[in-house]
Design brief:
Length: 359
């Protein structure tokens, strides 16, 4: 029996439906400054049966280098085959890689070619795409949108015809609106501006300031500068967000304002992509499916009013979905489809409805 490790990037190939399928998908960050500190691989048979899950280290080639990334992927595949009881000498029918840092088509195709040359006995084919694609396809095999608001933020839509469009994802210097980092930075900026008499704050700053100083373990704004420039950590900045959320839940007007503004920015990501969304997605049952990824969505009740405030008549209906399983499942589905296999998966089991809107 042959084996295949597949991914969510679409290609046209043929293969046996009896081949197992697996997917490696870059997971959320725990890395101190950049994210993507570990990966997850799932081995799935052609009938949809999951054979095993394997955890591995970071596979973001922008962080660890392309050669090291490929070596780590190879190690994970070998481990998965061993745990699943698959003959290690049998090559995979297809290899799917859903990874952070894989945003450019030309670079992805080059990665595929190089991997096949380097590991010619490991797999028969390789497909590479961004880590966001697997999230969409875990919930909606016909396509949809993924909206990410974790340490960073971005949005991507995948149309039924395979075309894609994106908004955001440019990092904390150029974007990341509505992300945990963005919310934290906005809170700090409001405090600095208020005490400099540069801008009047929208609400009293007392509770927010106390929360910020306690999080960074500093006494004043001058001590904050070390965290901003000398010992900067994006993830540590973003970690302030959950504490601001707690204060907002207790009713603090300034912290509630921060999440209201974040809600507006999230909705603006969606509205920016509406002109590029296929009408079949917009008219599907439940409206446009939007898979929401990232811890900021845990504060949905704080985001909701601002979110509504940025919507307009171009979007009549949508459903916000939260995954209950790894997006490796969606990557496996698309990877299997790329080599001619339609995995019989129950997609409704992969998510729960966070919010439904109909005009």
């Amino acid at each position: 029996m042959a084996v295949k490790l597949v991914y969510e990037f679409e290609k046209t190939k043929t293969s046996s439906e009896n081949w197992p399928t697996a997917t490696s998908r870059e997971l959320d960050s725990k890395n101190k400054s950049n994210g993507a500190s570990f990966s997850k691989l799932v081995l799935v048979k052609g009938n949809g049966e999951i054979l095993c899950w394997v955890d591995g280290p970071c596979t973001n080639h922008l962080l660890v280098g392309k050669d090291e990334c490929q070596n780590r992927i190879s190690t994970m595949i070998e481990k998965a085959k061993k745990e699943a009881g698959v003959d290690p000498k049998i090559p995979l029918g297809g290899l799917g890689l859903s990874m952070s840092g894989c945003e450019q088509e030309e670079g992805n195709r080059q990665f595929e070619e190089e991997f096949l040359i380097k590991f010619s006995n490991l797999t028969r084919s390789v497909s590479v795409a961004s880590d966001t694609v697997g999230s969409v396809l875990t919930a909606s095999p016909k396509g949809g949108m993924v909206l990410i608001a974790g340490t960073g933020s971005n949005a991507l839509v995948i149309n039924p015809d395979g075309t894609t469009a994106r908004c955001g994802g440019w990092g904390h210097l150029l974007g990341d609106e509505a992300s945990a980092f963005w919310i934290s930075r906005k809170a700090i900026k409001i405090i600095f501006d208020a005490e400099d008499n540069f801008h009047e704050p929208p609400h009293d700053i007392t509770r927010a300031k106390e929360t910020i100083l306690k999080h960074f373990k500093v006494q004043d704004k001058f001590e904050m500068l070390n965290h901003c420039y000398v010992d900067f950590s994006k993830s540590f900045f973003a970690g302030l967000c959950v504490k601001l959320a707690h204060v907002a839940e207790e009713g603090d007007p300034l912290c509630r304002f921060l999440f209201y503004e974040a809600g507006r920015e999230l909705a603006k990501h969606i509205m920016a992509l509406v002109p590029k969304i296929h009408h079949n997605l917009l008219e599907s049952e439940g409206g446009l499916p939007v898979v929401c990824v990232g811890s900021v969505f845990k504060s949905w009740e704080l985001l909701k009013d601002g979110f509504h405030g940025a919507l307009d008549s171009k979007l009549h209906e949508f459903s916000l979905l939260r995954l209950k399983t790894s997006s490796a499942i969606g990557a496996a589905f698309m990877g299997a489809k790329a080599v001619g296999v339609e995995l019989p998966l129950n997609f409704s089991e992969h998510f729960y409805l966070l919010y439904h809107f109909k005009c």
